[in-house]
Amino acid sequence: MALRGIWQLKRLIVSYCDWGGSSRGIRAFIESNLPAFKESNPQLEVIAELSRGQHPCLKAFYKNKNERVVCVKNLTSEDVLLHATRLRNALGRKVKKLPTRHVTKHPSVQGTWTTDVRF
Predict the structure, then answer these.
(1) Are 30 and 112 in contact (CB under 8 A)?
(2) Which of 35, 49, 56, 83 is the most buried (most CB within 10 A)?
(3) 3-state SS string over the chain?
(4) Residue 117: its pLDDT value, please?
(5) Smallest Cα–Cα separation from 14: which of 45, 58, 51?
(6) Which Gene Ontology terms of cellular component type are present (predicted)?
(7) In whole angstroms, what is the distance from residue 84 CA to residue 77 CA?
């Protein structure tokens, strides 16, 4: 995703094995979908990395020095493309847990509303 017009994903490394069965979908992705993905994203550096004996994964490096790794073992090429697109669209921020279920600027003085009110 672009933050203020700048894409946040710098580099995407596609790591796969040329022999293993769990890399079947990512090998199909590299043959069919990866060239079109590279053409549609010229701002992105896409590297295909051969790592034998390892499960396939997508490694994303963002401008804010964060890194995300997604395991794509036993997935189809369409699912791998979906994960690559999600990594491209992400901002690269860490996941932050919210303190309450609802977040508001003006919290209620009386407390949050619930269905089990006793009169």
Answers:
(1) no
(2) 56
(3) CEECCEECEEEEEEEECCCCHHHHHHHHHHHHCHHHHHHHCCCCEEEEEECCCCCCEEEEEECCCCEEEEECCCCCHHHHHHHHHHHHHCCCCCCCCCCCCCCCCCCCCCCCCCCCCCC
(4) 66
(5) 58
(6) mitochondrial large ribosomal subunit
(7) 10
Amino acid 85 reads T
Burial, 80: exposed, middle or buried (Cβ in 10 Å; 0-12, 13-18, 19+)? Answer: buried
Helices 24-32 and 77-89 pack at an angle, to 10 degrees, of 70
Q: What percent of the chain has pLDDT over 90?
A: 72
pLDDT at 84 (0 to 100): 97
107 vs 53, which has greater pLDDT? 53
Task: Express each pLDDT in 36-89 by its tens digit.
Answer: 999 999 999 999 999 999 999 999 999 999 999 999 999 999 999 999 999 999
The pair of three-digit structure tokens given for residue 7, joined into one six-digit string:
């894409």
